[in-house]
Amino acid sequence: MAEDVELRRLRRRIDALDRRIVALLHERASLVLDVGRTKQALGRRAIRDLDREREVLVRIAMANDGPLPQADLLAFYRSLMAASRRLEAADRRAARVRASLEGSAGPRGAARPSGSRGSAGSRGSAGSAGPRATGGSRGSGGSDEERGPS
Question: Under 8 Å CB-to-CB from 85, ≥6 apart: which residues?
């Protein structure tokens, strides 16, 4: 009985940590979007920056002093960076769609072709430009834009 109580207490602590981790991952994802938009504003076409990814992985490896095996932690970060690239690519696609819709609308107040949606409240907004909004996640290969120059 006492073991059951202790097990429930430990699992509640894990659940609380999971909620904090998810919040931190969402904060990181928001920063990824900011980085992507800044790179684009600077004229950088490539989404993937291998030097930056290596830098992050080295820093993570050096910070790992816990029980989690190095290979597992690095695999998690590789997966996280792949998800970040997909998020950035989806955001770029959504921005292109918004720009083309705004460009085809003509002057403000002009009628839109039937069946088109305005950008306000549409599913293509920046807040929903994730894998679900763009047809699901892809394999780790990604597009040429995600991989950057060869």
Answer: 47, 48, 142, 146
Nearest to 87 by CA among 42, 32, 46: 32
> CA-CA distance, 16 to 34, in Å (whole number)?
28
Look up residue 130 and give its two tokens: 């994730």
- The three-state secondary structure class of 79 is helix
- φ/ψ of residue 138, rounded to 5: -110, 175
Could you report the per-residue pLDDT of 28-64, keeping only the tens digit for each?
Answer: 999 999 999 999 999 999 999 999 999 999 999 999 9
Residues 6+ apart with CB under 8 A from 130: 87, 90
Contact 36, 92 (CB under 8 A): yes
Give the integer Cα–Cα distance in Å for 93 and 135.
12
